[in-house]
Structures are given as structure tokens and as C-alpha cells.
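Exercise 7. Predict the joint structure of the components listed below.
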Amino acid sequence: MFARIIEEAPTFFTYYNGLLLMEAMAATFMLSAVGCVIGFGAGFFLAVARRTTSLGLLPLRVSTFGFVEAFRRIPFLVTLMLVFFIFEIVKIDISLFSVALISVCLIATAFIAEIIRGGLESVHQTQWDTAAAMNFSLAQTLIYVIMPQAWKIILPPVFSFFILFIKDTALASQIGVVELTYAGKILNNKGFSAALVFGSILVLYFVISYPLARFGVWMESRLASSRNR
Amino acid sequence: MDYVFQFGQVVDYLPYLVGGAWLSLQIAFLAFCGGMVIGLFGAMAKTFGGPVLRGTANAYVTFLTNTPQLVQIYFLFFALPDAGILMSPYQAVLLGMTLNAGAYLTEIQRAGFETVHRNEMEAAETLGMNLWQRVRYVILPHIARVLFPPLSNQYILMTLGTSMAAIFGVEELTGRAFNVNAETFRAIEVFSLTAGIYIVVTLVATVILGLLGRFLFRAKMRMI
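Solution:
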């Protein structure tokens, strides 16, 4: 195995293979980053929707609950296939990357909504009641009272979810999105040994994920210490 | 949209799909048990080990938690034959999932080890317990209750993770869904039915684990 890796290494580490891998790496990063940003926005909306109390918004609460619970329990691969085939039958021609992006957003929304809900609930009920007593609207309550306290609790798990998600996007290779795993399959099909190719792919994922994970740990410790002060 | 939904054709395959779900649960269970054993030794190495053991455990956890499970299984399945190790898809998936779970469970159990109070450890030491006895009689009973909710959460996530096995041709739930799709060409129906089965299976698992936690450890768990 090692003799073959050493033999193939000069032909493997060429400019164009490197270019392919770099572009694939960018695609992987984009998928998870865009997914998480959109997921954060939508998830925030869903989490707030579940805090509403008026009777008229009951259908919204129920559907939000259903959406979050359902998509947290469907594997990413199945979501990917569902989105893929739904776009096929409604005959909208979109790129494979967009299909993957939409499924990523769906899953991220469901998971992040749950994280944010936890964060909002971590703020004591009296704070909500006080804001209501001061006649704050829901938006004002969130902006001036809840979020300044909750963001420290929300941010670390959202960030670690983002890192977890970078690795889940590897499944997007199954519908043919050219991201890191798919680039590995391409190179493997070109005849390079699997050990060399997938070893490099593993290292590249590690290169993306590890610094972010370290940053996440650092951020968590900083936010935690400032909260205890 | 002029698509006509036809579930009738797909519903005939329901027993076949449910059989796949059973296999999914089996894979998740085996990988979880293997991962727990690896995780226990990993956590022991990280807490009590010398620099070499600790370094090894750290490297293992850092590398496996920072790379995708799918690519790890690719590596096991496609690269190891070069070194003369041939595995069936089922074995490769099981080994990959076990190693990956081992890394995550090491971290979870290490966090549990840290919740054990120093005094308890010192008391155990004074009683002349060796390392294994300390882990078995002091730490494990103590952390079982604390760790039950995160561990059952991890188990549910692993059940979803088994869908990855389909890519390697293991006929678990997603793999069988691919088969049914290839036979009937009713993609939406097949995959929405599959999604439904996953939801039901994980819901049932959550409820069972929640009840188990309540009776065994009186652990508060969020039901559903």
C-alpha cells in the first residue's frame, strides 16, 4: 500500500488535481456555510414562532413543531433524495448544487431552530414577563431583553453544529455535487489508489474542520467565563 | 405539476422496508455497543493514562471527529484492500461506524468522568481499589445517570447515520428504498414512505429510551 502511494504521489499532486481539490473544498465549505447562515435565519424565525401564544397562530406553532421534529428525524441522505426528486416532478431545472443547498438548509433550519429554542428558554421566564409588563412588543422583547442574554448560550452549539455539518455535506456527493468527497471519487476513478486519494480527502476535511473546532472551543470557553462573572 | 401520486404500488413493499429498518437498528445498536467499549477505554486513557496513552486517545478522537464518517468508510472499504484487508460492505460500514462512534463516545464519557468528584476518587483509592475497580464501582454507576440523556441522543443520531450504509450496498432501510425505487420508479412515494419509517422508528426509540431513563435513573428526559 505504501509503496504504491509513494510511487503515485508525484503524478497525484499536480497543479490541476490540486485545483480540482481546492474548488471542491470551496464547494464543501460554501454548502455548509450558506446552509448554516440561512438555517440560522429560518431557525430563529421558527424558534420565535413557537414562543408565540395567540390562538390565531396555533397552526403556525403546530406546523413549526411538525417541521422541526420531522426533519430532525430524517437522515440527510433521504432528505437529499426527496428534494432531488421533488424538483424533478415539479419540472424546475436547478443545478445539483442548489438541490444540495436546499436540503442542507432544510436540515440546518430544523436543528438550529431547536438549538435557538433551547437558548431562548434558558432566559428566565421572569425576564419575558417583565418585558411583557413594560408593554414591549415581541420584537422589542427579543432585541432588547432576550437576545443580549441568550446569544452567549446559542452561539457555541450553533457553531459546533456548523462544524458537524461540514462533515455531513459529504453525503451530497451521492447526487453528484462536486464537493470534496465527489472530487475524491473522480480522482479514484481516474486510477489513483484509493488509499492516496481518500487519505488526502480525509486530510483536507481535517484542515477545514480542525481550526474551526479549535475556534469553537476557544469561543465557548470565553463566552462561558464571561457569563459566570 | 402533472404528477400523479401512486402509493399503492409502494405500500406493497412496506414489509420489505420495515425489514430494512430492523437491519438499520441492528447496525446502529452494534456500532453503539462497540463505540461504547472503545469510548470507555478512550475516556480511561484520557483521564488516567500517561502521556503516550493520552496522546494516542487525543489523536484518535481529534482525527475521527474532524473528518466525515462517509469518507472514513470509503477509506476502509476502498483503501484497505490495497493492504490486503478485504471487507464486505456490511463489515466495512459496521467497523467505520464503530470507530466513528467510539471517538464521539470517548468525548461524551470523558466529560462524564470529569463530573465525578475528586473526593470520591480519593476515597476509592484509599480503599485500595485498582483502576478497573475504581472505574467499574465508582465512576460508572455515578456517570450512568448523568450520561444517559446525551448517550441516548447519540444513539438516535447514529440510527439516522446508518442510512450511509446504503451507499456501500448494505440493504438497510435507505438501501432497500433505493431498490424499491429502482423497481417501481416511484421515487417521491418511496422516499417519503422511507422518511416516515425513519420518523416512526426514531420516535419509538426516543420514547423507549426516555421511559428506560426514567425508570432506571430517574433521569429527566425530553419526551418526543
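Discussion. Residues 13-224 of chain A form a domain with the MetI-like fold fold (CATH 1.10.3720.10).
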